Amino acid sequence: MLEPITSNLFLRETRLLPMRLYLERYFGFERLHTNWRTEALAGLTTFITMAYIIFVNPNILSQTGMPLAAITAATCLCAAFGSILMGATANYPLALAPGMGLNAYFTYTVVQKMGIKWETALGAVFLSGMIFLALTFTGIRQKLLACIPHQLHAAVAGGIGLFIAFVGLRNANIIVPSAATTVTLGNMRSPETALALFGILLIAVLQVLRVKGSMLIGILGTLLLGAALHRVHWQPVPYRFSAITDTAFHLDIPGALKVGAFEIIFVFLFVDLFDNIGTLVAVAERANLMEADHSIPRLNRIFMADAASTILGSIAGTSTVTSYIESAAGVAEGGRTGVTAIVTGLLFFAAMFVAPLVGAIPTFATSPALIIVGGLMLAGVGTIEWDDPTIAIPAFLTLVTIPLTYSIADGLSFGLTSYAALQVLTGRFKRQDWMLYLLAVLFMLRFVYVAKK
């Protein structure tokens, strides 16, 4: 009686085997020296480190009058769609979600300060997404990325590393705001801070011992210890995915055009464009996914996924969707292919229906991973030509301004502008680099404009 069952299982496995081999070839497992287990762990790690967006984004956007439950559902939907699209079409371990900073601009500047309705603001996000798409089709976004001198790639990656380490230190309250010195050391006797320090030590020891999944083990270990010490507080809140209908398709595109939203659209466009470019360079550099000529393969598909996700976000009811630097946590766990992003996306898809449960993951558990990953991203800084001032000075400015301005876009602007200025002032101007110099002028005009505002 067992023979037919065994035979059926064998036939089923032989039918599945070609599909598995096809997928492994499609994602380049052999070439990138990875496997399903590594990619799945990396995707889970990325999800856990960025799951905070499920609650932080709705908390910020709800201050515009948008329903909290609807934004929560839209946040999960867009993160799931964007991450899966990025992984499946571009084959990169980049996860996407509504961008921090842009959601604050959406709420506090556009809606509260300018007095624009949230429906109209969503219309402006939609228009910025359509412009992203047009810039990608025309190849302009690709040329903008090519403008970044490859000598600055390591500086961008290092600056973003310092940035996410700073965020982790701040979230763990290891460093806190200070009126006298801007920042200072936090209260080391605080239980949450002590738990974060435990997490850093745990991940560091696992890294030294080269234990697979060290980031994930560190996060979960810190979470379990926090739960045992009664430091994990979870309060269930009413939630249903169908609430998304309260914001979906409520965007007002004609209204965005009527209010003359050029300034708003430009900010959404600028910040997302250069945040995305900076994140892309940093993650590709860390994962060794760049070509020998410093180019990034499948660039069109990466930008298409980013633009499509922003458009969907505006339709569903959230601010601009962009690539997340927390993807570097998955890369640090060995993630090298789009499977990492797909796993992250599937977990966001599951979170659409159980979003309140994810709230049990406190920042003291995820902060240690951000701090360690930030440190690992500084590895390439040693390749910078520090003996050449035309490279060293722009690299230094990039390194320090990304974390200190709390903006990848602003830090990248400083680095590119100083690099272009030194090239011109030292007689190294090249006509073929005209777009770099044009970009530098636009950056300077933006800084002057922002200062006036």
Q: What would you note in describing this structure?
A:
The N terminus is likely disordered. Helix content is 69%, strand content 3%. The chain is built from 20 helices and four strands. It is mainly alpha-helical. The radius of gyration is 22 Å and the shape is globular. The chain has two domains: 264 residues, no CATH class; 69 residues, no CATH class. The strands form two sheets. It has a two-stranded antiparallel ribbon. A two-stranded antiparallel ribbon has the order 2-3. Helix 9 crosses helix 13 and helix 9 runs parallel beside helix 18.
What is the H/E string? HHHHHEHHHHEEHHHHHEHHHHHH
**Strand residue percentage:** under 5%
The SS-based structural class is mainly alpha
* Cα separation of the termini: 80 Å
**Helical coverage, percent range:** 55-70%
Low-confidence parts, pLDDT < 50 over ≥5 residues? 1-6
**Total of domains:** 2
Major sheet characteristics: 2 strands, antiparallel
Shape: globular
Q: Write down the Rg.
A: 22 Å
Spatial order of the strands in the main sheet? 1-4
How confident is the prediction overall: mean pLDDT?
85
Please provide the count of β strands. 4
Q: What is the tally of helical segments? A: 20
